[in-house]
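User: Show me a protein chain along with its predicted structure.
Assistant: Here is one chain, sequence first, then structure tokens.
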Amino acid sequence: MKRVVYVLMLCGLGSLVQAQVLVNGVDLNTLKEGTMISIEIREPSILSSLSSRVDYGQKDQVSNRKMAIEDPETGKAKKFNSSMEVVNFMIDNGWEYQQAVFQQPKTVNDYYDYRYFFRKKSPSVSLDR
């Protein structure tokens, strides 16, 4: 019986642990509850891959890479295959989707940009006994 309780406790603690969401070395999961962020996603084209820029209120960086979600192991910009992969990544890491805005390209050669807004969720606490 003690083993069952121990295993259930470990499973419960594991569900509370979330990966880091790093931008320029800052873990966004440490921002206070209710914080809003936006992620601008430029869809891939024939000549370029999908790119993202995160705005959480930091000073604007000269390099877009400095505003990208980083891989915690390498420190390099994390590669995503689609905008929905970015959205699902944020949701899986404790961020609540709020809204998306489509930004129409100004010229034929321009990119399609989307801006997604997220709010930091409050940690869920189970009061079941």
